[in-house]
Amino acid sequence: MFDLRGRVAVVTGASAGLGTEIADGLALQGANLAILARRRELLDEQACLLRKRGVRVLPVVCDVTKQEDVARAAETILQEYGRIDIAVNNAGGGKGAKAEEMPAENWDYTINLSLNGMYHCCKAFGKAMLEAGYGRMINIASMYGLIGNFSIPSSAYHAAKGGVVNYTRALAAEWGGRGVTVNAICPGFFCSEATERLWDKEFFADYLNTYSPMHRGGRPGELNSAVVFLAAEESSFVNGAILPVDGGMTCI
What we know:
There is one protein chain. This protein is an alpha/beta fold. It contains eight helices and seven strands; from the N terminus they run E-H-E-H-E-H-E-H-E-H-E-H-H-H-E. The chain has helices spanning 18-28, 40-51, 67-81, 104-132, 155-175, 196-199, 202-211, 224-231, and strands at 8-12, 32-37, 57-61, 86-89, 135-140, 180-187, 242-245. The chain has a seven-stranded parallel beta sheet with strand order 3-2-1-4-5-6-7, with helices on both faces. The protein is globular and about 50 Å long.
């Protein structure tokens, strides 16, 4: 497996869902962690669990939609660890509605969380990486940043995640020659806090069986293995990649 011992990794949206799995995958490979989210109680619970992996864990309460929060978080991490080697910008989400009925507040909420929050994190963590001349920036986008979808009315989310995809490419072009690689992962359906209400529904199983070439959703470990690869030295020549981890849903 890949060796991340001695590296410092930041994971946003790390109090629940895919963020907890990503953080655990990095801890299993020896990375020391800074985990960020808005909910202190859940963050502290996750920190206790992650420390059982034998790594250092710094929980930091942070709202990624607030640039000043993210800047303070970066300062706190640098004070604790002295550097930021890896950043997995995972925090995101949105409020859906039919495109022709989309309330402005739903649009603004989704863009602010899923796109502006990504900008705040890349700016703050990227600055530390550029100053050090080394970094692995990993942005969690979505398969819906690559395709449209008629069955789930979420045009704001599609727009935000599509923005993340091309923002990743732009940063990769700017920063690749300065020691910082920037890549994005586009997950398909994984069971998480956002999707668990669907997971055991018959219609959802039918949806996956029809539209996923693998006829299923993602399993535990199938996302964080991709994250760990992009965080490791073995991916040193991978820059600007947009990696779908979706069972092939974006290829049909």
